[in-house]
Write a structure and sequence with these properties.
- The protein is an alpha/beta fold.
- The chain has two domains: 149 residues, Rossmann fold (3-Layer(aba) Sandwich); 50 residues, no CATH class.
- A six-stranded mixed sheet has the order 2-1-3-4-6-5.
């Protein structure tokens, strides 16, 4: 299970409220069901599915969900897509079980270390491609500014289980030097923009998509 920060303030700004009593949310690849509280706070009836977690009440394969069409108003997939052997198949299944007008919110690894049999760490273009080919309307794709490559590598690879504060202190000098170097580079290189810096050095990407009314 990735230690990526789950919900940023920006992600929560896209988090919908349930339209009615009994509106369902699917936490796809839920693991420890850590997102139940925020989903129920938004008024959703929480349902989770995972391939092998002993804590989930519904074991299922994201490539072929044992669920009927258009039964969820919201689908979450937090730090899951990188662990899927055939991501296009998972995205098609997510699209199938999502109601028309529903939201799909998730994150996917980019420059995190290899972990838990991760198959495909996605760039911003790869994230777009995986979502778009399934038919989703993409609302937002953005790098995580908090979960940088330095933080991700330190927390998950170099110093696992180290307290978060110590990790931040360790990477802070290198992060400051990194930002300064890119600022200097902007004076000489057209591709050294702040947006490109974050795209190139994020640990994960956030995506928000919807199933448009046809």
């Amino acid at each position: 299970m990735s230690t990526t920060p789950r919900f940023s303030k920006e992600m929560l700004s896209y988090f919908p409220k349930a339209k009615e009593n009994g509106s369902l949310v699917l936490d796809l690849g839920s693991g420890s069901t850590a997102h139940r509280e925020v989903c129920e706070y938004a008024g959703f009836e929480y349902m989770d599915s995972d391939y092998k977690s002993p804590e989930t009440p519904m074991l299922g394969d994201a490539h072929a969900l044992p669920l009927k069409d258009e039964c969820f108003e919201l689908i979450l997939s937090m730090a899951v897509l990188e662990h899927i052997r055939f991501p296009f198949a998972m995205m098609r299944e997510a699209y199938r079980v999502l109601k028309t007008g529903g939201m799909f919110i998730g994150t996917v690894s980019f420059l995190e270390p290899f972990h838990d049999n991760s198959f495909y760490h996605h760039t911003h273009l790869g994230t777009y491609n995986s979502i778009h080919q399934a038919g989703f309307r993409i609302e937002h794709i953005a790098p995580s500014e908090i979960w940088t490559v330095l933080v991700a590598q330190a927390r998950m690879g170099l110093f696992p289980k180290m307290p978060r504060l110590f990790t931040k202190l360790l990477v802070l000098p290198l992060h400051c030097l990194h930002v300064l170097w890119w600022k200097i580079g902007r004076k000489f290189r057209h591709d050294a923009s702040e947006e490109n810096r974050i795209n190139c050095t994020t640990g994960a990407f956030v995506y928000i998509a919807s199933k448009a009314v046809s």
